[in-house]
Amino acid sequence: MTTLDQAPTELAETKSRFALRLRIEHALTAGTVVSLLALWTLLSHYGLVNPLFLPSPEAVWSSFVEVLTKGYQGQQLHQHMEASLARILAGYFTACVVGIPLGLLMGLSTRVKAVFDPIVEFYRPLPPLALYTLLVMWLGIGDTSKIALLFLAALPPLSISAMQAARSIDLGHVRAAQMLGATRAQLFRHVFLPSCLPGICTGMRISLGFTYTVLVASEIVAATAGMGWMIWDASKFLLSDVVIMGLFVLGLTGLALDWAIRQFERFVTPWRFA
Predict the structure, then answer these.
(1) Residue 180 near residue 245, CB atoms below 8 Å
(2) Which stretches of the chain are DSSP H helices?
(3) pLDDT of residue 211 exceeding 60
(4) Distances (CA, A) of 188 to 167, 183, 185, 239
(5) Which residue, 51, 67, 233, 239, shows the most beta carbons closer than 10 Å to its own?
(6) What is the CATH number of domain 60-273?
(7) pTM for this structure?
(8) How far is CA 75 from CA 100, 230, 231, 237, 253, in A?
């Protein structure tokens, strides 16, 4: 059998192994979810944990149905979700528009890095609530200060990941393209951007998580709608079933947005998933 004859067989075996590995991963994921739900059900059913701290799955589901149909504090569940998603997406996409180009420039120019990197690194570890008090003083208690806080939370992961992606480009690829007569525009499109996209997409996923992390902090001041506000308000009245339900809804929407970013990554970097 020649090498050409062996190639299709090896390709089929590789695809088969990949499919098997994917099925195993999916089975492990499903098993983990089912096991956690079973443990939760057993703990609540036998009263091993106070229902005030860990309500049963049935109680959480009942809270979901009630908030979905009757609302919470005068707002329907979809209105709380719309308010939160509007703030998250406004802050997140603004951070993408600013942070990704800024990070690429910081990776390409030491002077740009010297100007902006100290600013990003200084405020990056600051607690969100500490920043929010200052933003409220500057921008008021409306949505502007909330979106600004989410923007500031999302910016550092985006700019740092883009900067590292730009600095890790293989110079051999750049020189090879230059020897073939590539123009600056061609270098950017065919060498620079494809090399940076994986790191940028990773930064986008991390940044989205940071945005969700500070959502509650951004909605606890002068808000009347939003998932973070609903969770915070329910916690004041010890409504743990509403709190856990809100966390589940936030987590599921976060997974959906993360899935969308991963699909975008597959679209812009298809060679990594071939």
Answers:
(1) no
(2) 3-45, 57-70, 77-108, 110-123, 128-139, 143-167, 171-179, 184-187, 193-213, 215-219, 227-236, 240-268
(3) yes
(4) 14, 9, 5, 54
(5) 67
(6) 1.10.3720.10
(7) 0.85
(8) 36, 10, 13, 17, 19
Q: What is the pLDDT of residue 181?
A: 84
Contact 249, 227 (CB under 8 A): yes
Residue 206: strand, helix, or coil: helix
Q: Angle formed by the axes of helices 227-236 and 240-268, to 10°?
A: 160
**How far from the centroid of its chain's Cα atoms is residue 189's Cα?**
26
Which amino acid is residue 74, in one-letter code? Answer: G
The dihedral region occupied by 74, where left means phi > 0, alpha psi between -120 and 50, and beta the remainder, is left
Distances (CA, A) of 180 to 64, 165, 172, 176, 231: 61, 24, 12, 6, 58
User: At a CB cut-off of 8 Å and minimum separation 6, what does 202 contact?
Assistant: 161
- Residue range 11-69, pLDDT digits in tens: 566 677 777 888 898 899 999 999 999 999 999 888 888 888 999 999 999 999 999 99
CB burial string 228-237: b at 16+ within 10 A, e below: bbbbbbbeee
Question: How does residue 203 score in pLDDT terms, banded at 50, 70 and 90?
Answer: very high
Q: What is the residue whose two structure tokens read 């600051």?
A: 126
- Spatial distance between the Cα atoms of 182 and 63, rounded to a whole number of angstroms: 61
Phi, psi of 76 (to 5 degrees): -70, 160
